[in-house]
Amino acid sequence: MKKQIVLDLIKREKLIPVVRVSAPQEAMEVAEAVKAGGVSLIEITMTVQGAIDVIEELNHKHGDDMIIGAGTVLDADTGREAVLAGARFLVSPNLNLDLIHLARQAGVAVIPGTMTPTEIVTAWNTQADMVKVFPIAQLGGPEYITALRGPLPQIPLVPTGGVNLQNAGSFIQAGATALGVGGELIDKKAVADKRFEVITENARAFLKAIREAGEEMMKGR
Fold this sequence. Notes:
Layout: H1 3-13, E1 15-19, H2 24-36, E2 41-45, H3 51-62, E3 67-71, H4 76-85, E4 89-91, H5 97-106, E5 109-111, E6 113-114, H6 117-125, E7 131-133, H7 136-139, H8 142-149, E8 157-159, H9 168-174, E9 179-181, H10 188-192, H11 196-219
Parallel strand pairs: 1-2, 1-9, 2-3, 3-4, 4-5, 6-7, 7-8
């Protein structure tokens, strides 16, 4: 699958569920629950036990019906492993220029993590496809995205780390290209209790909030 197709899907759905669970089987079941909720994308973090194998298995099972990305990718070597397993996009909490170069060579999308305007511009100038802003709750929430969009309207921003159902719409209206959502979508208690239908409903609720925010923006134009 071409990188542009992946990027177009991220821009269209605007939701990247971040899977940070303990066991490989939990990650597989969470991925199925998210897919049932209407989301085509999922990010398997490298903190998941056997994350590379999970990515490979999900790709084997779903093919192009589910776009699997690798998260918490801290360096180029890990990124290379994830790409070989079938990851279509790479996400990191930090800014590692070698990882950006690796992704471009491999032809996969890369979303490095940043905090400051300097880091954001550095990532973009190094040809990141989108730029993650993390941890957004501690940085000021939607207002921080609004402030960044003023001088940096050309850079697609993906706030992560504090996005919830109550503020998801505000982030979209602030100009976020997509949202990275972890625990607020993938509820740890629901996973522990194997109530994966809760995660499916959460995914639907986030998609609804994002869609309604977009519709409100269109009305205001």
